[in-house]
Amino acid sequence: MATVMPEAAVFQGLSWNPLTDVQQLFTYPFMVNALAAGTIVAVMAGVTGWFMVLRRQTFAGHTLSVIAFPGAAAASLAGLPLAVGYFGFCGLGALALAGIAGSRRSLSAESAAIGALQALALALGFLFVTLYHGVLNGLDSLLFGTFLGITTQQVVVLLAVAAAAVGLVAIAARPLFFASVDADVARAGGVPVSALGFGFLLVLGLSVAETSQITGALLVFALLVTPAATAHQLTARPALGIALSVALALAVTWLGLALAYFSIYPVGFYITSLSFGLYVLVRLGRALGRRRRATARLALRAA
Amino acid sequence: MTAMATSLRPDTGSRKGAAVTFNGAAVRLRGRTIWSDVSLTVAEAAFVAVLGPNGAGKSTLIKAILGLLPLAAGTASVLGRQPGVAKGRIGYLPQRHGFDSGTRIRGVDLVQLGLDGTRWGIPLPGSPSRKRDAARVAEVIELVGATTYARRPIGELSGGEQQRLLIAQALVRRPRLLLLDEPLDSLDLTNQAAVAGLVRRICEEEQVAVLLVAHDINPIIGYLDRVIYLAGGGAIEGAPEEVITSETLSRLYGAPIEVLHASDSRLVVVGQPEAPFVHGDRHA
C-alpha cells in the first residue's frame, strides 16, 4: 500500500516547515473532511453564538449541549447515525426550552426549570450508555469530540443545516437584534418578539447539534460562546462583532485541528484551550487599557 | 369609588386634528377595572403629562394607546385610526431601569434600530437607502444633543445620556405621536428639567404630540400644555393650573384632597385615601 501512495501521503509528523506541514494536513481525505466540517461549524457557531451572548442565553445554550449527549448515546443504542440523535434531541430540547421561556415565570424559576432539564438529560445520556453494554465506541468522543471518521456525506449534511440556519439568522438579523436589545420597543414597533425568540432557540439547537459533532457535547462552548464573548469584548459594533466572532471561531478550529493532527491529544482540548486563551488575553488587554486611561485622566487632572 | 372623566376646558384644536381621542374608554386587567369612563383628547403637537399615584393606570393608558391592551368599553382613536394600526407613526419609550454597564451596544446602533429594526433581510453596504438612514440617524442624534457620546457603548453612559439616545430612537421615524413612559425616573432634578426642555423643543420643531408619564409635575410644569391626571379609577384632562387644584382632585379621588403651594412654588398634593402621596416622592 505504502508504495502506491505518493511520498507526501505518509504521515511524517511536524516538519517545522510551515508549507509542508500545511500540505500534509490536506493529504488525507479524513483530514480534508475534518477541516471542511470544522469550517462549516465554526461559521455557524460564530454567528449564532454572537446572538446567544447578546441575548444572555448561554445557560440555555449549555443545556442544549448537555441534551446533545443523550441524543448521540440514544442514536448509538438504536443503531442510527449520530447526527440523527444530535439533531433530534437538540430540536426537542429547543422546543422544551421555548416552552419554559414561553410560560413567563420569574427569571429564577426559568433558570431552575432549565437546570432540572439539564440534569435529566445527563442522567438519560448515562442510562443510554449503560444500556449499550458493549464498549460504546468512544464515550469520550461523544463528550469531548473527535475529528476522525467524518464522512463526506456528514459534511454535506452539516453544510445544508448550517446554510439554512445562517440564512434564517441573516433574514431575521435586524428584528432579532432589535428584539434582543430592546424587546418592549421592538414589540410596540410590530416585531414578532416571541416568535423570534422561539425561532432563535431552534437555530441555536441546530448549532449545538452541529458543534457537538466536532467538539463533543461538553465542549460546545469553546466554539459557541468563547469566540462570541471575545468578539463582544473587542467591539460594540454589531456587523464587525459577528465577523470577528466567526473569524475567531475559524482560527481556533483550524489551529486546533492542525495541532490535534500533529499530536496525540484530542481536538476538543486544543480548541477549548485556544479560545479560552484568546478570551483571557482580550479581557486582560481591556482591563489594562481601562487602567491606563484612568491613570491618564488622573494625570491630566493633576496637571 | 366614583369613576369620572371631565374635560375642564374643551380642547382648542378641532376633533379632526387630535392625535389621541378616548371616549368612555375602560381597561380591565385580570378581572380588575384599572380605569373606566375615560374621555380625553390630545391635540396635535401638544406636550401632555400623564400624572397620578402608583397603580392608577398611567402605563396602562400608554399601552392602550399603543393597542397592546384592548379596551373593555368605549372607543379610542389614535392618529385617526384604531389603536395599534398606526404603529409606524408612533414613537414609544417604555418604562425601564436603564442599560446595565455590561451592555455592549452603541447608542448609534440603538437609534438605527428605531429606523430599520423592523425590516427583514440585510441591506447592501453602501446602498442609497443605507446612506439615507445613516444621515437621518445622525440628524436625530444631533437634535437631542447626543453627538459626542453616541458611538460609545450605551451601558457606559449616564442615565440622562441614555435617555436622550432613547428619545432619539423614538423620534427617528418622524412619528406624529411620542409616548414616553417615565423617562425622567432615575434622573436628578437638573437632568429632569433639561430632558423636559428638550421634549418641549422637539414638540415644536418636529410638530409631534407627546404624552409623558411622570411622577412629579414640578420640574416639568413650565414646559407643559396639558395634564392628564389618573386616580380613583378615572381620569381628568386639562391645563395644569386647572387640574392640580384641591377641588378638581377631590372630585377625581372622591375624597378630600388638598393641593398646597410650597414657598418654593412647588405643588404638593396631600390627603389621598390610599396613602399620603407627595409629588416628587418616589414610591418603590
Q: What would your notes on this structure say?
A:
The complex is a heterodimer of chains A (303) and B (284). Chain A is mostly helical and 303 residues long. Chain A has helices spanning 18-25, 29-54, 58-78, 82-102, 107-131, 139-144, 152-171, 173-181, 183-188, 193-215, 221-224, 226-234, 238-262, 267-302. In chain A, helix 2 packs antiparallel against helix 10 (193-215), helix 4 runs antiparallel to helix 10 (193-215) and helix 12 (226-234) runs parallel beside helix 14. By secondary structure, chain B is α/β, with parallel strands linked by helices. In chain B, strand 7, helix 5 (189-205) and strand 8 (209-213) form a beta-alpha-beta unit. In chain B, helix 2 (107-116) packs parallel to helix 4.
The CATH topology of the largest domain in chain B is given as Rossmann fold
CATH H-level name of the largest domain in chain B... which superfamily? P-loop containing nucleotide triphosphate hydrolases
CATH architecture grouping of the largest domain in chain B: 3-Layer(aba) Sandwich
- List SSEs of chain B in N-to-C order: EEEEHEEHHHEHEEEHHEE
The percent of residues in helical segments of chain B reads: 25-40%
What's the mean pLDDT score of chain B? 84
Q: Which sequence of strands runs across the widest sheet of chain B?
A: 1-10-9-4-8-7-6
Output the structural class of chain A. Answer: mainly alpha
Question: Gap between N and C termini of chain A, in Å?
Answer: 78 Å
Number of helical elements of chain B: 7
Strand-and-helix sequence of chain A, N→C?
A: HHHHHHHHHHHHHH
Oligomeric state of the chains present here: heterodimer
CATH fold assignment of chain A: ABC transporter involved in vitamin B12 uptake, BtuC
Strand content of chain B: 25-35%
**So what's the overall shape of chain A?**
globular
What number of structural domains do the residues of chain A give?
1
What's the CATH class of the largest domain in chain B, please? Answer: Alpha Beta
CATH architecture of chain A: Orthogonal Bundle
**Individual helix count of chain A:** 14
Mean pLDDT of chain A: 85
